[in-house]
């Protein structure tokens, strides 16, 4: 299930956090603390969406309009649903508030806590993925997140890795994927030519001969 949601500007100012129904969970509280550390490392050059693994929980985020939308989920929660949830949250927030409001220097931390009402409502929709009325709708909205970068929290916080480097790695993976796709297409054509080329050449010779002989 989705345990926690956070919306912040990429400069680190937290605008909204979800109320977590009074849950007292040491591991979850630790994950929230680490999330704030990661938030401090974000900037415009960071990977625009990523998954960060941390013990029993997994954090996902997307960046949109100079904002970052985070959620912390149980590790078993489907990643595609988590990103669809974040997409819903980000669309509603950016449609409700404009950048001149949340981007202003006078904007205060936790200024948009009233938005938690929508977060809680949306969270309930995504909690029971087995419910047919919910799952059918979610299944139509699932995003292809197979290429979303995944990193371990230890790499980011304690081994000096960076969110920018994640972006570089992700770009290289996408470029490699394009190269492999082109190579696969070329190899398939070569195999087809090798398999059917002699028959095609023979057919062409026969057609030319018939044309020359009778026309």
What can you see in these coordinates?
This protein has 215 residues and is α+β, with helices and mostly antiparallel strands. Helices cover 54% and strands 18% of the residues. The chain has two domains: 2-161, Longin domain (Beta-Lactamase); 163-215. A six-stranded mixed β-sheet has the order 2-1-5-4-3-6, sandwiched between helices. The chain is elongated, with a radius of gyration of 25 Å. Its main location: endoplasmic reticulum. One of its GO terms (molecular function) is SNAP receptor activity. One of its GO terms (cellular component) is endoplasmic reticulum membrane. The chain crosses the membrane at residues 196-214.
Structure described in brief:
This protein has helices at 26-40, 79-96, 99-102, 116-127, 132-141, 153-157, 163-214, and strands at residues 2-9, 14-17, 49-54, 57-64, 67-74, 149-152.
CATH hierarchy: architecture of the largest domain? 2-Layer Sandwich
Radius of gyration: 25 Å
> Percent range for helical residues?
40-55%
**Spatial strand sequence of the major β-sheet:** 2-1-5-4-3-6
Q: Structural class per helix/strand content?
A: alpha+beta
Q: What portion of residues belong to β-strands?
A: 15-25%
CATH level-4 homologous superfamily of the largest domain: Longin domain
For the largest beta-sheet, the strand count, sense and barrel status come to: 6 strands, mixed
How many DSSP helices?
Answer: 7
Q: Within the CATH hierarchy, at the fold level, what is the topology of the largest domain?
A: Beta-Lactamase
Question: How many runs of DSSP E, i.e. beta strands?
Answer: 6
Instruction: Tell me, rounded to a whole number, the average pLDDT.
Output: 77
- CATH class wording of the largest domain: Alpha Beta
Give unreliable regions as ranges: none
Tally of distinct domains: 2
């Amino acid at each position: 299930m989705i345990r926690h949601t956070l919306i912040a500007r990429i400069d680190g100012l937290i605008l909204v956090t979800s109320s977590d129904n009074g849950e007292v969970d040491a591991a979850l509280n630790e994950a929230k603390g680490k999330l704030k550390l990661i938030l401090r490392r974000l900037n415009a050059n960071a990977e625009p969406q990523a998954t960060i693994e941390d013990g029993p929980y997994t954090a996902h985020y997307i960046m949109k309009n100079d904002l970052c939308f985070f959620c912390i989920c149980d590790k078993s929660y489907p990643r595609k649903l988590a990103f669809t949830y974040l997409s819903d949250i980000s669309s509603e927030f950016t449609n409700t508030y404009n950048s001149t409001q949340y981007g202003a220097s006078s904007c205060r931390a936790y200024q948009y806590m009233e938005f938690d009402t929508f977060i809680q409502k949306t969270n309930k929709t995504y909690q029971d993925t087995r419910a047919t009325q919910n799952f059918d709708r979610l299944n139509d909205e699932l995003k292809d997140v197979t290429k979303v970068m995944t990193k371990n929290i230890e790499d980011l916080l304690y081994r000096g890795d960076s969110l920018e480097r994640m972006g570089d790695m992700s770009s290289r993976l996408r470029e490699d994927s394009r190269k492999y796709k082109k190579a696969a297409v070329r190899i398939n054509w070569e195999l087809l030519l090798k398999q059917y080329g002699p028959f095609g050449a023979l057919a062409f010779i026969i057609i030319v001969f018939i044309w020359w002989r009778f026309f």
